[in-house]
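Example (one chain per record):
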Amino acid sequence: MEPLAVILMIGLFILVLVFIFSTALLTPLIGKKNLLFVIALGFTVGAVGGAFFIAPVFDDIPDMARSVYMVTTTGTDVIGLNVSTELNVTDFIENTKKIDGVQSVQSNGITLKTSYISDDWKSTFLNRIPEINENITSVQIPTNDTMIIQVKNNTDPQEVINNLEKWMLYVSGGTIRYSIVRVTLNVDAPKLDKVIAQIPQGDVVITDVNGPTEKNVQALKDILPNKSNVVLFCGFLGMITGLAGLFIDSIVSVFNGIRERILKLKK
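Predicted structure:
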């Protein structure tokens, strides 16, 4: 939500409070016995105004704060990506390194969906796959058609996948249906949004963002009240505004009395 829209929403809620106050001022016409009417009106209209004008602003506070934190926070944010090998992963990594604000690009995890792997072949793969490429550090086969490969940093994941696919086809006749590479970007915190905007869509999915910016935003989210509490608060604020309008004469008299006493003490 744009700052102008936020100001407009708050302004409209203030007008709602003015309406409640003005209605309460009419009590000489509708009678002082209508105290419950003023309370009910103030709470109801305040709650409705809060739901329409204030609650949406609270929803956008984290995003507005994120923009401020990115400008004022120094440090490094970490972006986690899943990159489909339908994209040329090697070119993607090299191009991403050139984006302004990117400190480093690392790739050390590959998830493969394969043809069915029997339990006998599963044992063979676990033992022999680490020998296929010296950059493979570990292999997991959580299901009979899923393989998770960990590789050393700065390894070309496409080369590992190609080697593995040829080996599987030659040894067991197995194939790789599709694969996803886990890529991690270290990014200057003030340039986080600009970097994210330049990441291609479709074959690249942002899975998580961590770092000082997100920690500050999460800390803010933790202390913000939920929308229900915001609406209830606006309802009580409307009720108080109505009571202020109802008893405005008494309130003014009290303030005048206090002012007169202060003036007498000064004399």
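Caption: The mean pLDDT is 84.
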